[in-house]
Amino acid sequence: MRQNPSFAMTDIAELRRVVEQNPWATLVAQGDDGMVASHYPVLLDPERDDLTIVGHVGMPDDQVLHLGERELLVIFQGPHGYISPSWYGDVRAVPTWNYTAVHLSGIPEIVDTTANLRILDDLVTHFERALPQPRMMWELPNTEEFVRALESGTVGFRLTPTTVSAKRKLSQNKPDRIVENVIAELDGNGEYAQPELAAEMRRARQARLAHRR
Length: 213
Hints:
Blueprint: H1 12-21, E1 24-31, E2 34-44, E3 53-58, H2 61-64, E4 72-83, E5 96-106, E6 109-110, H3 113-128, H4 144-151, E7 154-159, E8 163-169, H5 176-186, H6 195-212
Antiparallel strand pairs: 1-2, 1-4, 2-3, 3-7, 4-5, 5-8, 6-7
Helix pairs in contact: 5-6
């Protein structure tokens, strides 16, 4: 991902927030016949406070990705959306796309059965806890035999990235009045409204203002 100092994200807490809020990740690796990609939910390792992540893939994706043997790039995509030049007012401008993305790469560690079961349990708990009547992995009518049979068809991994690249392109290079206009449009009810992106822009703007003080 091409970097621009104006858009670089380096704060670990902010990177962890983006990863935590956007767990549906793209996993990319060099396959035998070219680049390959898979898509899976990935979480921060609950036992670490850095950017270590945990997840699983279904067989035979572990072989397709050469999991544990080759470098794995894991991409987390935050809120994003189209930005019209008409939102800038009477100035020369072209369309653009605002977005937040975090890239983590390294050679993942393949975990054992016990750790993989814990990862699968954490994934289920993470997503089910938002529901009014959560259904946990080990809860009946699921049985231990059923859960372990499912686990045997997956490969769990832990990745502590050796390379981190993160970008928050949210109109930081524009005057405050333009940023405010863009946020208002994204918060509106137009064709390209995107409230989550507006919230990200507010967050970036507040951080920039705090840095000026």
